[in-house]
Amino acid sequence: MKSGDPSASMALPDPMRGSGRLFMWPSDPATADLVMGIAMHLRRRFERNEAHGCVAVHVDERHAVLILDALRKHLSAESMLTTRAVYKSGLDEPSIADIPRAEPLESFIAFARAKWLGDLITSRRLTAWFQPIVEATQPDNIVAWEALARGLSRNTQVPILPARLLSAARDAGLVAAFDRFVHEQALTGFVFPDTSEVGLFLNVTPRTMEDPNFDLGHLQRTAKDLGVAPSRITLELIESETIADMDRMQDVLTYARGLGFGIALDDLGAGFSNLNLIHRLRPDVVKLDMDLTRNIEADNYKAVLASKVLEATRRLGVRTVAEGVESAAELAWLVDHGVDYVQGFLIARPSPTPAVAPREILSA
Questions:
Q1: Which pTM does this prediction carry?
Q2: pLDDT in tens, 192-208
């Protein structure tokens, strides 16, 4: 990661400020019908402007991201490239001068999402929350905290969950900058206990790890400046993106270990597509995905799969964390089958500060 203020590179002009209309010129009638269907489903006003050959959807700041997300989700990749879009405030109709500045919907959405992220950062509404990771057999003993990205909506202050934030960062091509900002927020907002080896897990995407601008040495120096040994930090490689270059990833992880960081592999069991990554990446910790642990005591299929994973990791000397533990029955099954650590709502929900004593967690 390079030094400097990451918010500066993310503060882009806002293409959708205030209330107005998003004008789209689909390349075919079927796409136009789909755009109108999306607007209707979201209960947004729209018009089909035959004179200008476009569809106009009424937008306000509160619904802008929702509309753009729906368009990105339901339109094909080809339609995203061939449909052109421009935003006009108020009820102004598009003029001849607006046509040249209309851009592919894909680019328009990336631009808008980048601005949205930039606004979260510059207004200090993007930060890190923390969730404890505890010993499975002694859930009052915290071994680490996981830092989780959280944004706050401008009007309601309702938390914006990581999946939506990461999706926006990916669309805007700002994943590495996003990861870096959250890491620095987490390091500066987390108080490492002096009397224990409690650690901190930092989420990082494969795309960030492969980015030449992601400077692990800077992360190490930041930690040391705060008086934190890198050995107390674990980089949690999340499986939200495909690893493009396995050889480079292995080299980067070797370098990270040389700097003192631990390595964790997230979402084990989310489709089981990353089981093969264990022997390639040699993580110190693997985390069982919440979809695998949810109701595991009552699902024989999950139980058999998880048992085999836990047996293999135990023989390899890889520690395990079960995510998303919400019931005493789930915890009991996991303890019986040798999971090392657990996290989830049964223990504690994520919070803005990690200043919760272990025994307060279980009595909260």
A1: 0.77
A2: 776 678 899 999 998 89
